[in-house]
Task: structure prediction
Amino acid sequence: MIEMNVSLASEQRIGMRSDDTSLPECELALPRSPQSSIWQSRWVLAATVVIVVPGLIWILLEQSDRQHEIPPLSEEQQAAMNTAMLPENPAIELDESGISEGQYYTVDQVVIPDEEFVVGVEIDGNACAYLLGGMNDIDQHIVHHQLGGQQFTVTYCDKSECIAVYDRTGTTAEIRNGGFSGETLWILYDGKRYEQDAEDIPLSTIDSVKTTWGEWKQRYPDTLVYVGLGLSYQKTLKEE
Result:
């Protein structure tokens, strides 16, 4: 009887173990679907992009601005910058008569290197050369002369290298030095300024040539030459 009860009890316990397939409550939770995990990952990635990327861009911009910050200039640097911004050749207005009583010399009286440039004028066999180096200064750009009975004005601009010889025959107004336009010499005629090479200047020109002193004196050994005022160019006259 006792053995039967024991066996029965054992069978009951075995039966309970075999029939009771229940698991703890935590183990009964179903696994998450792959699709749900993917969407969650996407939301996390999107949130990261929205928050982190603008921050990185802001940091990079701040660093870039700091790298390009220009330190304040000193007074000397500012003055140098202001000078550099000025025109290389600013306009200058003058009202000067030019050279009317220049001195003219013969070939034997001067010591001018043969390679120096002159503007040469020849009228009825009378020749004269005008040393460009002696006309460099702004107040010496205009020389009035009479040669072979012809009155004319020689003009030269050292900035533009422009040369013009104007006929003064029949003119009633002076041809004056009007200054510098920023490009070339200003001719002041009858109260109005004209650039030296202006097409509308109301003056006729006479023939002239730019050449070297060596070539000119070889062609016209009896030529006269204008060397400028004093020693403004260099030593040009032989010792007395």
About this structure: The helical segments are 2-19, 34-67, 75-85, 213-219. The first helix runs from residue 2 to 19. The two ends are 169 Å apart (CA to CA).
